[in-house]
């Protein structure tokens, strides 16, 4: 805070310089006072000035105030100050100075110009009061209620805010929303690019979030990559959710890295989904994990029938353990077609779980939950083992180019015995490795460390092919396409739908196909839904595709009929 007052006010007071000196003497007991000439050279200081600056009077007189410069303020701060007092106006502001021993102190400062006969300043009297204690209290309060990395309000501040909103809502009978979100696969960013880039990413994310904050100071960092937004007007909940998702549409460029990220967002409404801060955060958290099942940028408003309600998380985890022990899962097959010949050349296998109480859970629901409770590698091994056994039964009915594609987590691929166990299974069933394709999500390539590269190279050496799933949504640095022996790119559904309505999608698909051709890679279009999209994909010379246009994911029995032409 600083500014100028009209110098005419000083003229009307009609103080002489001597009278101002007398005033200085009166202030000596309570204020920090200095007199400088028109150039800012210190001519006189009082004892309090010496005490707070820790310089002697002899060390100060003859110097200018740069001796106290802390480096805290920009040059423009002092330029404006000199412009003001040079025009004969009084300047007021808060200044951070550095004492002789290196310590910082704050002073509330008033600088009064004393004008000569020519109307120009001849001397300046500065009157200061020490406000360091007040500043420190504000600083301590800020630290207590704000995240030190991003500067956003923290968990402690969030609790107070929600309690305040509940109190306000009770008085005015109104609703408010709690939006809970985290960054998908943030661990991959930290592990592969380093914690420095991870921290830079969080700070940039906080900056972007602040720009869309329609209420000011309503984004909170819980911990790690978890954030909360408090929305007072629930009629804007879908609009605000879309704005949060849009924050992730542009890539993040940090030092030498460029990559995309996505978010999963869960929303709870007071009082319908909870009447306390803890309950609202819990239900929003449940909705967030439901959003993760949709993959990529997505949000869901909480519903009472969602898993985890009333502590069903532990019940569901127990059921999942039991299903693994009792072999309660089933495989589904999503056939992959040669788009120009219209014949099946393989299939992507997916896991499905049918529980008597819960009902049907498909792969997009099972895998995020399994990852959350540490069962993802067990699920992967079940799928891999059963898919290979089934592949052996398909062998008499398919040609040598037929492939089964299995989407595996990075955690499973990096296991020490993974390749040995996999090749042993193939040998026991007399299966050629090239009938098996392992899919890795493009976002998984953020975890591209030396162990992963070594595993992929060894898989390739064994004859097993590697494809990148969800291509176009994740790691925009394409070096891995040269460094790792990849055979296939599977274009993400966000680009392969509405090709006739969204020209940018068709351009993106064309660019990916061109890139794949240059690198001698095959291309599969994911989730083709209609004939219009299929026709455009054929025009763009996309080789292969899968999706609802051809059929729903098939049971083992139905897929067997398809490949046997029964």
Number of strands: 22
List segments where confidence is low: pLDDT < 50 over at least 5 consecutive residues: 4-13
Strands of the largest sheet, in order across it? 14-15-17-18-19-20-21-22
Number of helical regions: 22
Helix content: 40-55%
Calculate the mean pLDDT score and round it.
Answer: 85
Largest sheet: 8 strands, mixed, barrel
What is the oligomeric state here? single chain
Strand percentage lies at 15-25%
Q: Shape from CA axes?
A: elongated
Measured on Cα atoms, how large is the radius of gyration? Answer: 34 Å
Short description:
The chain is of the alpha/beta class and 566 residues long.
How would you characterize the overall build of this protein?
InterPro entries: Biofilm_reg_signaling (IPR052155), EAL_dom (IPR001633), EAL_sf (IPR035919), GGDEF_dom (IPR000160), Nucleotide_cyclase (IPR029787), PAC (IPR001610), PAS (IPR000014), PAS-assoc_C (IPR000700). This is EAL domain-containing protein. There is one protein chain. By secondary structure, the protein is α/β, with parallel strands linked by helices. The protein has 22 helices and 22 strands. The strands form 4 sheets. Strands 14-15-17-18-19-20-21-22 form an 8-stranded mixed barrel, surrounded by 5 helices. The longest helix has 19 residues. It is elongated. The relative contact order is 0.06. About 2% of the residues have low confidence.
Topology overview:
Layout: E1 2-5, H1 7-13, H2 17-27, E2 32-37, E3 42-45, H3 47-53, H4 57-60, H5 75-86, E4 90-98, E5 104-115, E6 121-130, H6 132-145, H7 155-172, E7 176-183, H8 186-193, H9 195-211, E8 219-223, E9 226-231, H10 237-246, E10 252-254, E11 257-259, E12 263-270, H11 277-292, E13 298-301, H12 312-325, E14 329-338, E15 343-355, E16 359-361, H13 363-372, H14 376-394, E17 403-407, H15 410-413, H16 418-428, E18 436-441, H17 450-462, E19 465-471, H18 479-483, E20 488-491, H19 493-496, H20 503-518, E21 522-525, H21 531-539, E22 544-545, H22 556-564
Parallel strand pairs: 12-13, 15-17, 17-18, 18-19, 19-20, 20-21, 21-22
Antiparallel strand pairs: 1-4, 2-3, 2-6, 4-5, 5-6, 7-9, 7-12, 8-9, 10-11, 14-15, 14-22, 15-16
Helix pairs in contact: 8-9
